[in-house]
Amino acid sequence: MSVLIYAENAGGKFKKSVFEAVTYARAIANQNNTSLVAISIGDVDAAELAALGKYGAEKVLNVSGEKLKNFVNQAYASIIAEAAKKHSADIVVLSNTFSGRGLAPRLGVKLEAGVADGAVALPQQDGGKFTVKKTAFSGKAFAVVELTSANKVIALVPNSYKVTETGETAQVEDFTAETKDSDFKAMIKEIVRSTDKVSLPDAEIVVSAGRGLKGPENWGMVEELASLLGAATACSKPVSDAGWRPHSEHVGQTGIAVSPNLYIAIGISGAIQHLAGISSSKVIVVINKDPEAPFFKVADYGIVGDAFDVVPKLIAAVKEYKASA
Amino acid sequence: MKILVCVSNVPDTTTKITFTDNNTQFNTNGVQFILNPYDEIALSRAIELTDGGKGSVTVINVGEVNTEATIRKALAIGATDAVRINAKPHDAWYVAYQIAQYVKANPFDLILTGRESIDYNGSKVAGMLGELLDIPSVSIIKKLDADDSSATVEREIEGGKEALTIPFPFVAGTAEGVAEPKIPNMRGIMSARTKPLTVVEPVEAKTFSEVLSYETPAPRGQVKLVPADDTARLVELLHTEARVI
């Protein structure tokens, strides 16, 4: 028995969410007194692969090839499932990212495994029961789910498990797996990456704004603050509905759920649907001119004031802090 | 073009979530159940794609009789007909397996689900259906155009977006952007009463997971207010006290 972690790369590099998932998978392997194998698919250089050892992977399986340069759901699932079988992995860990959430259910079927996506804590293995705490009701609650199958697939929410380093280097070996032509029916025509923007689902800091900004032309200061903090930008539903910002930035119950270390909400009143998507943020800052805005009830820090007055001052304060740091 | 839209019956988005029986049961008392908002987007796009006699839209739900109000809402929005698989939806595997068995006997060109349901946020049924039917699945799509034999979709990826062409049949999990949710009009509501709703008994299927209990997030402390003209103090608190910058 072993634990297998799928390490997804973005343009040949691993992101922090992968190191979190490897650390998490290492802890599960320790719980079960077993080994941890990582698998990477696509073009990632050897040093980057070996560095997964720092977080506890003993071995890294490297799968590459022209057809596998970009994420192809079916083919990647076939390869990961085969690796799990060859390495007798009964637990497969992924990051709960867009790709991870596409892969986990296909792996669940291939491995006849229960799937716990949205995992936010280490599994508990008491009295023969294997339980995982996961997000439910769009962040309004957590569910403790028992996986009753022999094989298990767990997708870990970014920013929910602390990265620790063991300082080791992993052994990297090439791995080949059978893929069928039918695995490649979905043909990628074009990929557009916003290289200058921080990805919202795994951002450590999110700067979000709502209708209080009055119009899309006023988003410059939100973007400036986000850029200074290395943060992703986000918005409330009315803002994306109005077309001021793209739907991909909508955070909330019917948008993206985020769990950053810091969530800064500007001019957002805090409707229950918005709070659902951000409630697992570690620290919440609210800037709103209405002292009765419901968002203040869940905030850690707040400023009662007009966004057009406060945000430029906050930008200046962050610049000053950065200059003195 | 024959389109199947998988719909689920979920608590209204304004619901305050509470639990009973020592936090082992979701408290449905006073909760209004609705058509899952993401499924509504999928359904709206399916109706647009088949508008003008270009095909049909069937909605399918795995649920007990209490979900029929939600199914009728889908019919009122414009679905052609509906299927209810008469079973409690135990877990995603169970739901996907039931739908897959139905689809094997009644093939569709395109199967749509919402990107996730807003209760358990699993986003699993689309991928599981794809695997059970051995067809492509693509999740979190923001755009969907189709002709007679294939579709072009745009999906969200980390730090960007990706455009794909996929031949029928395939499964897609839709998100905002694919379509504006349609509001049923009076004609739709009236005709929904007479549209066919077939009830199918479930097949035997495994379940691989079970919710044992629930927790609510720990309450946060009192907000610490900082004067609007002292943003430097906020930055200092975020650095020294909260340690997040």
CATH-defined architecture of chain B: 3-Layer(aba) Sandwich
The CATH architecture of the largest domain in chain A would be: 3-Layer(aba) Sandwich
Radius of gyration of chain A using CA atoms only: 21 Å
Oligomerization:
heterodimer
Under CATH, the topology of the largest domain in chain A is which? Answer: Rossmann fold
Tally of strands of chain A: 18
Helix content of chain B: 25-40%
What string, H for helix and E for strand, traces the elements of chain B in order?
EEEEEHEHEHEHEEEEHEEEH
Alpha plus pi helix count of chain B: 6
Spatial strand order of the main sheet of chain B: 11-10-9-12-8-1-6-7-13
End-to-end C-alpha gap of chain B: 53 Å
Major sheet characteristics of chain A: 7 strands, parallel
Largest sheet of chain B: 9 strands, mixed
The low-pLDDT segments of chain A are none
Count the DSSP helices of chain A: 8
How large a portion of the residues of chain B is in β-strands, by DSSP E? 25-35%
- The CATH homologous superfamily of the largest domain in chain A is named HUPs
Report how far apart the termini of chain A are: 48 Å
InterPro entries (chain B): ETF_a/b_N, ETF_b, ETF_beta_N, Rossmann-like_a/b/a_fold
Keywords (chain B): Electron transport, Transport
Protein name (chain B): Electron transfer flavoprotein subunit beta
Family (chain B): Belongs to the ETF beta-subunit/FixA family.
